[in-house]
Amino acid sequence: MHITTSHASKNNNRNGEHILLSLTYIGRNSEKNNGIELTRILERWRRNNEKSDITSALIINDNYLIQNIEGSRPIINEVLAILIKDYPHLLPHIIGVEEIKVRRWNGFLIKYLTSSAEDEEYTLKSFSAGADFNPYLMKSTQITSFLKTIFEDTEFNKS
Model-level pTM? Predict the structure, then answer.
């Protein structure tokens, strides 16, 4: 996924570049590749788009993912279009889009969930259904809480 910044103009407010949005979506890995391959795809996406002023928090395992992306309104809309068009195998479901005043994340945060006791504790703390990570069974407030819980202790979280 490569985001272009060709929409930038001399008047940065013309297209809403001054408005920050937060987009949260969940996805399911519908291809035969495993979560590690999906993580590699998302890592390439991150590297390709570091200059587009996007920040992100991603939680992933072999089957599912939750991602929150923050950036200007035009960039977030471009990300959404690319997700739907170029990544249909992720089966993205939008959980929420909101205007924000400040970013919550600093850079690109990634947490790969395993079957470790610590990761199961994160999952249980978020009130998901059982110890298995399945964001499709979680309410939007649980997903938001889960993101915050996973990344609350990291030095990269701004909140």
Answer: 0.77
CATH code of the domain occupying 20-115: 3.30.70.100
Give the tens place of pLDDT for each residue, 34-60.
666 666 777 777 776 667 789 999 888
Q: How far apart are CA 47 and CA 56, in angstroms?
A: 12
Rg (CA), the chain: 16
CA of residue 93 relative to chain centroid, distance: 11
- Return the residue matching tokens 């395992």: 61
Q: Give the chain as a 3 state SS string.
A: CCCCCCCCCCCCCCCCCCCEEEEEEEEECCCCCCHHHHHHHHHHHHHHCHHHCCEEEEEECCCEEEEEEEEEHHHHHHHHHHHHHHCHHHCCEEEEEEEECCCCECCEEEEECCCCHHHHHHHHHCCCCCCCCCHHHCCHHHHHHHHHHHHCCCCCECC
Spell out the domain ranges in the chain.
20-115
